[in-house]
């Protein structure tokens, strides 16, 4: 049985506008800090080494980002968390220009104050709903982003309005030719939600890969899947070997595997979109 995290009264916290508590605590299992929102681990940050990616799905996102052409990136991130991926990009690709959209101003302030960004980093945080915020981004970002990351959670669920084909069309409009969309999807046995998300994204961007722990990808347990998509072939030449190396065996499904994965799954529209499944609370016991 896992160890439940004791009630914390010693570490910085913020009450969020939409309910709940965000708290920054030292990581129990590695160096750095974790952002916890209502008992759900949201982010891990190592201020001494921003290239240290702890959560497995974030490691997979980093592996895809590393395959992008060398040099600074133009990136948009939906969902700030503790800014793990923006920090990683700043560390590995200095000079990158990054925009972050975060719903909760108290969370952004908590992170800025207690997990400060590197000096000189070109990372701008905009407060507001992710979908509305995309519509308010500077026009110059249209068709110019090398990377768009959608990793938005309200508690432990992705809001319904950020799962539809209409939403993904808005995101695809930000991408430069060859730009990549990364979406974090959480799902459980059967993967009904993840299959619909992959089918929905494939409706907009034809080149799709699904990265996950092999047991999650087989639908045997709850976990995170990263969907990578582009209008151009994905830069994934070295990913299979990197993913298989661990720390836990993982793979990327592409081509015929993706077609099989999404077969029979209906595209999500604004009219029928639902939030992602809520994980069992025991998943986060420590």
UniProtKB/TrEMBL annotation:
Q: Does the keyword Phosphoprotein apply?
A: no
* Keywords assigned by UniProt, alphabetized: Polyamine biosynthesis
Q: What is this protein called?
A: Spermine synthase
Highest lineage ranks of the organism?
A: Bacteria, Bacillati, Actinomycetota, Actinomycetes, Micrococcales
Check the record and name the Gene3D superfamilies matching this protein. Vaccinia Virus protein VP39
Q: Does the keyword Cytoplasm apply?
A: no
Tell me the CDD domains matching this sequence: AdoMet_MTases
InterPro entries (UniProt xref): SAM-dependent_MTases_sf
């Amino acid at each position: 049985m896992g160890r439940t995290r004791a009630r914390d009264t010693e570490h910085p916290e913020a009450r969020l506008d939409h309910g709940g508590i965000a708290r920054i605590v030292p990581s129990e299992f590695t160096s750095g800090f974790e952002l916890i929102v209502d008992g759900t681990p949201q982010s891990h940050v190592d201020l001494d080494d921003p290239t240290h990616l702890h959560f497995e799905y974030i490691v997979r996102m980093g592996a895809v980002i590393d395959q992008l052409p060398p040099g600074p990136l133009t990136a948009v991130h939906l969902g700030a968390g503790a800014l793990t991926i923006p920090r990683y990009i700043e560390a590995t690709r200095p000079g990158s220009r990054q925009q972050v959209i975060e719903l909760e101003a108290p969370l952004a302030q908590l992170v800025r104050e207690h997990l400060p960004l590197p000096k000189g980093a070109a990372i701008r945080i905009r407060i507001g709903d992710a979908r509305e915020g995309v519509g308010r981004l500077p026009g110059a970002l249209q068709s110019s982003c090398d990377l768009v990351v959608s990793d938005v959670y309200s508690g432990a669920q992705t809001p319904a309005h950020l799962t539809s084909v209409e939403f993904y069309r808005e995101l695809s409009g930000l991408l430069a030719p060859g730009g990549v969309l990364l979406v974090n999807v959480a799902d459980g046995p059967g993967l009904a939600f993840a299959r619909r998300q992959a089918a929905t994204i494939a409706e907009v961007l034809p080149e799709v890969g699904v990265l996950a722990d092999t047991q999650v990808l087989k639908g045997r347990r709850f976990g995170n899947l990263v969907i990578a998509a582009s209008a151009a072939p994905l830069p994934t030449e070295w990913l299979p070997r990197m993913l298989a190396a661990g720390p836990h065996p993982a793979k990327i499904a592409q081509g015929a595997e993706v077609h099989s994965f999404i077969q029979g799954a209906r595209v999500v529209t604004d009219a029928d979109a639902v939030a992602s499944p809520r994980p069992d609370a025991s998943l986060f016991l420590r």
